[in-house]
Amino acid sequence: MPIATEAEAPAQLPATRPEFFRLPKPGVGDPHFGFSRSFYYNGEERGWWKLVRIRDRGKGRGVTLIPYADVATFVREAAKKGAESNAGFESSRGDCPVVRTGSPDASQNKNT
To answer: Pairing with 102, which of 13, 64, 71, 74 sits 20 to 30 Å away (CA)?
Structure first.
């Protein structure tokens, strides 16, 4: 059996998570959860989390930051609720529940 030296062992980085991260650019999901800009804005409107806005005095533009811990808590609670409401249901992958965050009518267009 070969002995792996320290140089050959895979590097294990500590799982660090930011306190805040920037709002993703339009059309791109964030690197931590994959959610879009509009999802974060809607989440703030619904009271799921509070976005942090930083800008210089007198400036119209600035930086919008997302609290990582609040979003992670939301994801864990949504997964837990999804697992409870889908008891006995197996997804096509078989290892994850389906979690819906919008209202049932939100996906239906009543004008067509």
So the answer is: 64
Tokens read off for 86:
């889908």
Question: pLDDT 10s per residue in the chain (112 long)?
Answer: 555 555 554 555 556 889 999 999 999 999 999 999 999 999 999 999 999 999 999 998 999 999 999 999 999 999 988 877 765 545 454 545 555 555 555 455 555 4
pTM: 0.62
Environment class of residue 88 by beta-carbon count within 10 Å: exposed (0-12), middle (13-18) or buried (19+)? exposed
Question: CB 65: neighbour CB atoms within 10 A?
Answer: 16
Q: Report if residue 13 sits inside a domain.
A: no
**Is 110 part of any domain?**
no
Task: Report the number of distinct structural domains present in the chain.
Answer: 1
The torsion angle over the Cα atoms of residues 89, 91, 96 and 97, rounded to 10 degrees, is -50
**Domain membership of residue 29 as a residue range:** 20-92
For residue 81, give the nearest of 99, 54, 68 by alpha carbon: 99
